[in-house]
């Protein structure tokens, strides 16, 4: 028996994105300009079929930056349901956090997609909030202070 609910076509459903907050030794976060949108975002991308969040984050990070952080070393931060009807944007975003390994350098391995990688403080993210991707703005707007150094480092030290 059918419920009468009609599923929307796949292309009308929200996608699942994974963003990796990479912390440097001095507490800055890695952010890059996405050429398609002109907005800055954390390394990341879309979850592939049958892939876990941590595996997706590790894979995307390696593909985009050449940073190799194993999935077991990434930690879950938060999941957001980001909706902006004005810009026809709807995405489920899973944020993860990882520490930049001491022996690795960031490289822009997808120069046709990313204008380059930079290290920004959380304060700089706040100042330049109109330049960042919607889900990062949502992180900055949270009143529970989940997006701060103390909380992010505490996740990594568990």
What does this structure look like?
By secondary structure, the chain is α+β, with helices and mostly antiparallel strands. It has 4 helices and 7 strands. The strands form 2 sheets. Strands 4-1-6-5 form a 4-stranded mixed beta sheet, sandwiched between helices. Strand 2 and strand 3 form a beta hairpin. The longest helix has 13 residues, at 53-65. It is globular and about 40 Å long.
Q: What can be said about the biggest beta sheet?
A: 4 strands, mixed
> What is the percent of helical residues?
10-25%
Architecture, CATH level 2?
A: Alpha-Beta Complex
The Cα radius of gyration reads 16 Å
CATH topology: Nucleoside Triphosphate Pyrophosphohydrolase
Number of folding domains? 1
Q: Name the CATH superfamily assignment.
A: Nucleoside Triphosphate Pyrophosphohydrolase
CATH class category name: Alpha Beta
Distance between the termini: 48 Å
Count of helical segments? 4
Derived from helix and strand composition plus strand pairing, the structural class reads: alpha+beta
- Number of distinct beta strands: 7
Low-confidence segments: none
**What's the order of the H and E elements?**
EEEEHEEEHHH
Mean pLDDT: 90
For the largest sheet, list the strands in their spatial order: 4-1-6-5
Specify the overall morphology.
Answer: globular
Beta-strand percentage range: 25-35%
Index terms:
single chain; 158 residues; Nucleoside Triphosphate Pyrophosphohydrolase; three-stranded antiparallel beta sheet; 7 strands
């Amino acid at each position: 028996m059918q419920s009468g609910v009609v599923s929307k076509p796949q292309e009308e459903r929200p996608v699942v994105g994974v963003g990796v907050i990479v912390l440097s030794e001095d507490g800055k976060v890695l952010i890059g300009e996405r050429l398609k949108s002109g907005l800055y975002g954390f390394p990341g991308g879309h979850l592939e079929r049958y892939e876990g969040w941590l595996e997706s984050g590790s894979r995307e990070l390696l593909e985009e930056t050449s940073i190799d952080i194993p999935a077991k070393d990434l930690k879950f931060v938060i999941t957001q349901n980001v909706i902006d009807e004005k810009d026809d944007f709807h995405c489920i975003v899973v944020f993860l956090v990882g520490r930049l390994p001491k022996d690795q350098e960031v490289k822009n391995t997808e120069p046709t997609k990313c204008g380059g990688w930079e290290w920004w403080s959380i304060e700089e993210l706040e100042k330049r909030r109109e330049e960042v991707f919607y889900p990062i703005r949502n992180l900055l707007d949270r009143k529970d202070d989940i997006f701060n150094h103390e909380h992010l480092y505490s996740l990594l030290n568990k």
